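DM from R.C. (forwarded with permission)

"hey, sorry to bug you on a friday — could you get me a structure for this? deadline for the figure draft is monday and I only need the backbone to look sensible"
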Amino acid sequence: MIKKIVISTLIGTLVYLIVGWFIFDFILGNYTELNTTQINGFKKLEVEYNWLILSCLAYALLLSVFIVHFLNIKELKKGALIGVIIGVLIAIMTDSYWYASSHFYSNLIVIILDIVGAGISVGILGLTISLVNKKMN
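My reply, with the result:
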């Protein structure tokens, strides 16, 4: 069980890092930048993003523990659905906090796009983890 969690976490981290970059930087990056408050020095340079790996690892570990240990999901559709649900709920939690407590987001469209992006990216993470779980049986 521990071996499955470790392997699915490592593979999931790599997949989530790539998919997250594609969605949030490549596809939505310019729009998000134009519709969020830009404070000089607030955003780090991409070469300083080493803590991003830890963030992706934590998300992959969270889903791996749920999918592999608690739910033992081996069906790709179910793994993806768990990922979508968790991704959307966490994005709603963080985005609504930022929207309620700051002027970071300039409109609701950028929040909706972020939530959709989170659903897709974490859904793919859940799918990946359930695939690893299925293949390791």
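R.C.: lifesaver. The CA atoms of residues 94 and 120 lie 16 Å apart.
me: no worries. DSSP finds five helices and no strands in the chain.
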